[in-house]
Amino acid sequence: MNEVGHGRFSFRPMLWPTLLTAAMLPVLLVLGFWQLERLEWKRDLIATMTERLAADPIMLPAPEEWASLDAAAIEYTRVALTGRFQHAQELHYFTQNESGAPGYAVITPLVLANAPDAVVLVDRGFVPVAMKDRMTRLATESDDEVSLVGVLRTPQPRGLFDGADDPIRNVWMVRDPVVMGTYLGLGRVAPFIIEAEAASASGAWPKAGRTRVDLPNNHLDYALTWFGLSVVLIAIYLIYHRSQGRLGRPKG
Predict the structure, then answer these.
(1) How far apart are CA 87 and CA 110, in angstroms?
(2) What letters, b where the CB count within 10 A reaches 16 and e where it falls short, cover 198-215?
(3) What angle do CA 168, 174, 177 make, to 5 degrees?
(4) Which residue, 4, 5, 56, 194, shows the most beta carbons closer than 10 Å to its own?
């Protein structure tokens, strides 16, 4: 009978390891579940992009609707528009092509044919650094009225690591139609940008059709990492207590 007590499992938690584990474990778990939520969001976004980019284009939202338009609700929708490019006012957004080579997206104001006081900024496509100067590609410009199809994109929010715009050198780090339109002194500017499709290009450069459904989706890997760290933390906590004789069956 006096051997029964010796066979009883015991656990005597230590104060500081327990407090530290209790503080860290919920953080790791929250990060894991947050990544699972991001996973579902990214899957929905990719599905929406794929569906909208495969649909027939609709007419561009009328200028009268711009003030109340929720551009995010219709992002990646293909739209058709007609107007005249103001090539002398083109802007250069610093970016990279599919291969990672640096260059610029040429963003040009388009005055709408059915609303001469309304302007849409159109991302006409990518040019390498050597072709930043529009004089190198004048043959692709036209002063005639053009009709094109493009993909509606929302303004780009400025992140912590985005550099400052340099309007003097015409180098922009963020695609924000309001900021760009204000700098150009334009009147009524659409609260979105249109990315021209490849079929709408008038020449080899700028290279249009930059919209891609190739968003990275590593959120499941991130979630498994955070959950894995949670398991490791618990294991270390238990192993440490066992090494200190505070977990397990007493020796005797």
Answers:
(1) 9
(2) eebbbeebbbbbbbeeee
(3) 85
(4) 194
Q: Rounded to the nearest 10 degrees, what angle do helices 219-243 and 15-54 cross at?
A: 170
Single-letter amino acid code for the residue at 43: R
Interval 56-107: pLDDT, tens: 999 999 999 999 999 999 999 999 999 999 999 999 999 998 888 999 999 9
Q: Which of 85, 89, 66 is nearest to 155 (CA)?
A: 66
Angle (CA) 135 139 141, round 5° = 85
Bridge partners, residue 105, by sequence? 93, 126
Tokens linked to 109? 């104001």
Q: How far apart are CA 115 and CA 82, in angstroms?
A: 10
What amino acid occupies position 57?
P
Q: Which residue has the tokens 């007590």?
A: 5
- pLDDT tens digits, residue range 162-177? 899 999 999 999 999 9
Distance CA 174, CA 95 (A): 10
Model's pTM, two decimal places? 0.76
> Are 39 and 217 within 8 A, CB to CB?
yes
